[in-house]
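Inputs:
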Amino acid sequence: MSELDDLYQEVILDHNKSPRNFRVIGGANRRAEGYNPLCGDEVTVFLQVEDGVIKDISFQGSGCAISKASASMMTTELKGKPESAAHELFENVHNMLTGEPGSEGGGARVGKLAILSGVCKFPARVKCASLAWHTMESALKGEPQPAKTE
Amino acid sequence: MNAVPQNNPGTLASGQFDVARVREDFPILSAKVHGKPLVYFDNGATSQKPQCVIDAIDHYYRAENSNIHRGVHHLSEQATAAYEAARGKLRGFINARSDKEIIFVRGTTEAINLVAQSYGRAFLKAGDEIVVSAMEHHSNIVPWQMLCEQVGAKLRVIPINHDGEIVMEEFERLLTDKTKFVSVTHVSNALGTVVPVKEIIALAHGRGVPVLLDGAQAVPHLQIDVQDLDCDFYAFSGHKMFGPTGVGVLYGRAELLEKMPPYQGGGDMISLVTFEKTHYNVLPYKFEAGTPNIADGIALGVAVDYLRGLDWAAVTAHEDGLLRYATEALGQIAALRIIGTAKEKAGVLSFVFDHVHAHDVGTILDQEGVAVRAGHHCAMPVMQRFGVPATARASFAFYNTIEEIDVLVRAIGRVLKVFG
Ligand SMILES: Cc1ncc(COP(=O)(O)O)c(C=O)c1O
């Protein structure tokens, strides 16, 4: 497979076309906005957290296929998980995207999200894939400022 | 660029532009990207450099390097002469009246900041209005917003129509007794629109209002004559006109520059310093504090020599042909929409797809060796005006070819294949 096919895999294109949990959670008790000033990608992540567990998670916004698919897959992965697992997955996904040594094909630690690993071959696109994750992190931490990928 | 040398190397006997010959002057154009020949369509961001410019920088550091305006030794005199000769070439390039109207700066951005901070802070006050257009680059918006904060002035914006053209009636309505400055782009970097600047200048001058033109995207495509334009300031960057990064020019009408306070203080911009009082140097040095970018200034002069050696009638015909061919070819792609359809355009083709984000377009084109810019092009208000988050932008220079546009069209075919 070429690097390009690796980036735009069927699953990613599908999440881009029909993003999951692409909606507003009316009574969300956590939310944050993320913005990538480089390309104009915007995302808002909504979370309903109860007793340390992510009961519901959704997102809204506009962006490229990579940012949308990453956000969509993030929501399916995190729903029902404890907060601590979300932090851990954030770290692991981040390492995978930035090509941290030892994270190659880190399938066990990122689960289905390994499909995003092709992104690390495209340095200009890493921020697209990580935007939703940074935003989710800042929502969980309850930071009032919009998340940045910088 | 008025004098066209005989037997021009860039022109065929037929009078046509000899693009194959001219491409040989630009070493990077034979590069490969991802195994494919580079198709460089990001000239709006920065242009490539001819060998003579690259050589000039190399030669300067090998044979001439020394500080200017301050040494009695041979090298310093030589470097000073070369730097001042470059200033003279730039004066000729835009047909300014005098070398003292040519101020070397870092680029367009610094030129505009200089005018905003020097002219603006000295002559604008609370309640005054500054007029810009809706298609400015951020560097012709933010310096004015900063000035507005400092002096309490207000920024007014001339709207553009759906083709990306200035709405002249709206400009006339915005021009009032409160208007104290007009700053507009000559050619839009995001849309390619050539703005009717002479009309704008005539209207502004009718009310005694000075006008700055952002020429960053105009100098690589149009022949500039600041006397004919009758502008008060003209700002441009060396790196977009086949010269090096880190050097550009602010042209200013001498009468205005004389009245303006210095922008920065330091060496070179003074004639006498005591702790009681400092006397400023004469133009243009009053605005050139500190050791300038000597090597790149000299090399920019060489870029001017190169440009003046081209036959501009042939260059213009070739560039018009490229833009027309690309507009027609991309116009036939059903899913694609061109943003910026002004009657008068130069060098830029911005486009979007309904279902593919510009960033994805940029990545896929890159895999085919085609370099375009994907994003908001430092013109976020333009994106908002057209209701798109970003566009893909192909921007052309005279060394581009029709065949390269065919490669772009095929590469867009691959984008559509990936995204179905
Ligand atoms: C129209 C316009 N104005 C100003 C600038 C800023 O030029 P520079 O970054 O060289 O200062 C640019 C460059 O992108 C431009 O296209």
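Helices of chain A lie at 3-7, 10-17, 65-78, 83-97, 107-110, 126-140. Flag for discussion at group meeting.
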